[in-house]
Structure formats: C-alpha cells, structure tokens
C-alpha cells in the first residue's frame, strides 16, 4: 500500500479558554489554549475504508480518488491502485482527491465541478509547462479547495495559481498551503472568490498576491514574506478590485517584500474597500518608510513599521520585535508590542481562532499577525 503517512488534523472548534500564566523557565506567557485539542474520529486514511479518506474534521468520507506519484497511470485511482497523476484523479469525477508524493503537472478545474484536494505531509507540486499557470480554476459554480500542499520550484515565469478575469464566478480555497520559491507571481485572482487560511507565500520572484477586476479575497492567519524584487510590478499584496463585497485580510504578517520603485511593496489598495485588521506590515521595500501600505486600504488594530501608523482605530507604528525573521522565525518575541494588540471586533472563532502554527489564539486580546508568541521553553 502506497498511502502510509499519518495525516494529522486540527479541529476548528474553539474550546473554552483557561487562564494565561508564565511558563516554567520562560518570561513569555503561555497563550490560552495554545495547543489544538486532540482530533476525534479518524486521523489518517488507514483509519477509514478502502475507498474513503479522512477529512480534517475527523470524518471518513467516500467518493475519493487516490493519487500517488509512485503509482501507475490508471482510471481506478483507488487506495490499493492509486493513479500516478492528480489529473487522472480529477478525471475520475470524484469530489475528493487524496494526494501523496511529488507531482510535476498542472491542476485545471472548470465546468462547474467541486473538488477538494487533500495532500499528505510533504506532498509537493511543480510544473515545467511554459506560459500556463500551475493551478487554474474557471467556470460558474466551479469550486476547488486545496489542503496542506506545497507548490514550489516553478522556473517558468507564470502565475502559479490563477483565476482569470471574466472566467466565471469560481471559488478557490487554500488551507495550510505553501507557495514558495517560484519565478512568477504566486497568486493572481481576477474573478470569483479566493479564501486563504494558514497559507504561506514566500520568495516568489514576481510577487505574492494580486487581486483585480471583480475578484474578492478573504485572507487570514497567513504569511506573505520575501516576495517580489526591486524590478517586479507586485510586492506582497496588491488589491485593485471592483467587487461589490469588501475584501478582508486579518491576522496576516507581510514582511520584506519588494516591488518596483514608486509602488508599495507591502500592500497597495485601489478600487473598492479592502479591510485589514489585526495584521502587520514590516520592512517592506528598500529604504522608503512609506512603502508598507498605500492607497485606500482600511486599517484597524494593525502594525506598520517603519513609518507612521496608518489612520484608523488601534493602529501601531512600532518595531514588532519578531524573533528571527532573517532566518524564518516570524513569531513575536516576548516583549513585542504585537502581543495583546488585536482588537475586539474580530471574534476568535472559526478560521481566526488558529494561528499559522495551528495553535489556538489567546483569549483576547490576542497577538496580531499570523503567529502567536512561540511556546515557552518548559523546565524539567
């Protein structure tokens, strides 16, 4: 059997909060409920039947196609005979796909279909096809949700994830996905709805996230770091959307992104209103202290540094004192002004209740940004 790795899920249901207290051997407070509750039901595909998979909420669900890069080209795509490509799994017409291994191909979904792709830990996707995005979604009613996949190493200068303008009001969800180390733009959305939760966009040469035309986005608990370059059109996030519903970005950390001179390297907002809450924009751009944010973004309880804080309730213009961002640690240190800076307007429930690490946020006020303070070192 080729599917053998455990697939550990995090419940999205918030528990009752306990107290916050210093941890042994550390001055950094223990965050209230900073560990996920033990999952109930299944935790891995092997816990379910031969044609089922284990969903994030612990349920075994049938109607599953299995793809393993060590499998074979076939139309069955069962657990015992997995197909070797995700495309073959999509072609079965089943709603859920379980992926394992390293795939070099494209994912294309259209025609009003609904598909959920669950990736085992360590599963990666790349593509060597020029001029075409790696993940493409189109068509009215089309819906694609991707869980726990890494998309990396795309050397062609393409949009890695793409919903084209006027392509139908499709839906794309990215949950705990990493899009990193690609030559092109990580995500381009010109239509429909993008939901991005606990997702990392890192070191994509042409930028992080671009939203335009009639598209709408909801982003939470995500990390957008080191994207773009001094010559790229996009830096971290660029929103120029005419969608009738507001775009929303919350509990997101945007750090050290770059774009062409004169453009905001952190976030730029034009078009309809984009609401940004409980987030931070730090060290974006080269030397321009105004390059954290430009345009008509609406900020609340958000930190920008360097430079003056943006207008709005509860905004800060202070060094967030991240632990070691140069080496990939974006947790706020114990003395960070980001701790306890989250506002009361965003309920810590559903997607906002869990940070990028999958740790439940402190009972309010929580830390802003994608990550809570790192768990303290415990004494003997």
Characterization of this structure:
The protein is mostly beta strands and 380 residues long. 2% of the residues lie in helices and 31% in strands. Strands 3-4-7-10-13-16-19-22-25-28 form a 10-stranded parallel sheet. A hairpin with a 4-residue loop joins strand 30 (322-324) and strand 31 (329-332). 49% of the residues are buried.
State mean pLDDT (0 to 100 scale). 84
Number of strands: 31
CA gyration radius, whole angstroms: 21 Å
- End-to-end Cα distance: 41 Å
Major sheet attributes: 10 strands, parallel
Number of helices, counting only DSSP H or I runs of 4 residues or more: 1
Strand order of the largest sheet: 3-4-7-10-13-16-19-22-25-28
Q: Which structural class fits the helix and strand makeup?
A: mainly beta
Helical amount:
under 10%
Q: What characteristic shape results from the CA principal axes?
A: globular
Strand content: 25-35%
Low-confidence stretches: 1-27, 30-39
